[in-house]
Specification:
This protein is an alpha/beta fold and about 325 residues long. Helices cover about 25% and strands about 20% of the residues.
Length: about 325
Amino acid sequence: MSGPADALARWVAHQPAGLDLEIVCVEHDDPSQGDPSRTVVRLPACLRDVSASAVLELLTAGAATVLVRTDGCDELETSTEHLATVAHLLAAAGVPRLQVQDVHGPGAPDATDVSGGPRAPAPRPVLDAVHLPVARRSVFGLGAASDADLAAPVAAPSGPRLLSAALAELVPPDRRDGLDAAADAVRLGAHGCTACGVCVRACPTDALSLRFFGGEDARQDVRQDVGPLVTSLLQDPVACDGCLRCVDLCPEDVLTVTGAWGWDEVLSRVDVPRSAPVASLTTKECSRCSARFPTTDASSLCPVCAYRRLNPFASRLPPGYEAPAV
């Protein structure tokens, strides 16, 4: 859904200020019934396929409010849960610009005529998110936007970084202190970390990194032997989505979850990017294989190379392995 959602955000950016937007999913049978003052757009997919960051991008693009209609959705409980969470977060910050509700559900107001009796609301136009209207002046390049402008790709961060950036833009710094609700990002600890880097490579959002401090040339490029360095495993909560792939794939089984990051902490790191330390240890580059390994002595070989030098014609079985009976 990134394509239509991105196109919709670019379209919103070229609309007059104060646009009250209403979006419905493809499953809705009749979105033409509703508040005529709102601009309603039908998405080409279910709301469960629309990320919260894509909806917030409509607000940062210039929409005054966004109403996400859940009536007509076949999977109501799961399709809008992620959107409702963000809507509650904005409301708690005093920015109630996103609403997720069943317009025609229980408690919704009925349309009435001047005599107090019910009346059928007039139908309203429903726009297609895939084929959004463009002003005639814009088609000829005389307006603010053209079809080429709306179709042009926009370079932007993705995933949790985009969600955090959108929230940081919508919620002023003076309203973030009370947002102690847990974000998706998890706090990590790693007592006994060996700086192998498996978790860094496994992270799908690049939330983890290894940094090296000390020596004459403490660079990220560790292929050059600069002697013992303090190696730190760092986490960027802004990029973490809490998938726990790093924990599952840790070969030493030492990476653990110690808690959750609050949204107030995450948003503060959007304005001033800084990573949180997970573990720190002294490492040295192996003189034989050039891999970095934890060390507390003057050894120049990593444990694997040291074993191979002492046992050039032998193999070592994994811990806990039992040879089958012959």
